[in-house]
Backbone:
């Protein structure tokens, strides 16, 4: 079976500061990894994904994530956040352990203060 | 493309009533997912269709919930009878394949009184 753990339920940060949202997954085989963002009263939309190749993945809105197989992590980073980045962020994993159906984490609420 | 379309956007009903939520996936996508989102449980997968066939319905809470996909452009999620604990936001998502990017609809906010 596969699972995803987002270690922080809420991350407050000041505008223009860097941020890291943590995601760990459990799977003994190769997986696909995703980060989605949900703005208030909207559906989720893809930020970035890792399928294979380079472990550093760049996404939209200046976000990037690094796949670390040895630590089974896929942390999301942004060097300088904006007020508009305030949203809920979800990490998801897809692999043979779950019949390739994506499993989502509980989400991390990023709150950017002026 | 208009994206994934869900209707209604909001539904308020009384306990015991039947509720039907509707979803139109993106044209050409062959995978469709229904999710439920609550503060307590987060985002839960209810059912997954591939090429209009239900593949995994292990997340459907109980017999009161049923989902259909009569064709590639339409799916419904029905709750009969509804209960207050069914209050949640229900999302439909579609993708080209189960491992591809999922495109989510705007959701239906259901309130059961």
Residues:
């Amino acid at each position: 079976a596969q699972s995803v753990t987002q270690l922080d339920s809420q991350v407050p940060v000041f505008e223009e500061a860097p941020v890291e949202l943590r995601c760990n997954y459990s799977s003994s085989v190769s997986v696909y990894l995703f980060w989605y963002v949900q703005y208030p009263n909207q559906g989720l939309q893809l930020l970035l994904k890792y399928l294979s190749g380079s472990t550093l993945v760049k996404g939209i809105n200046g976000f990037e994530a690094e796949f670390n197989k040895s630590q089974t992590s896929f942390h999301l980073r942004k060097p300088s956040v904006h007020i508009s980045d305030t949203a809920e962020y979800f990490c998801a994993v897809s692999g043979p352990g779950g019949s390739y159906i994506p499993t989502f984490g509980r989400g991390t609420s990023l709150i950017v203060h002026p | 493309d208009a994206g994934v379309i869900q209707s209604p956007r909001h539904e308020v009903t009384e306990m015991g009533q039947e509720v039907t939520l509707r979803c139109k996936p993106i044209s050409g996508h062959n995978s469709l997912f229904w999710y439920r989102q609550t503060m307590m449980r987060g985002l839960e997968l209810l059912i997954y269709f591939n090429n209009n066939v239900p593949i995994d319905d292990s997340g459907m809470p109980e017999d009161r919930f049923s989902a259909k996909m009569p064709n590639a452009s339409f799916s419904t999620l029905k709750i009969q009878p509804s209960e207050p604990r069914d209050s949640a936001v229900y999302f439909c998502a579609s993708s080209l394949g189960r491992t591809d990017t999922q495109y989510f609809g705007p959701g239906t906010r259901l309130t059961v009184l």
Observations:
- Chain A touches chain B through 22 residues (CB under 8 Å).
- The mean pLDDT of chain A is 92.
- The two ends of chain A are 41 Å apart (CA to CA).
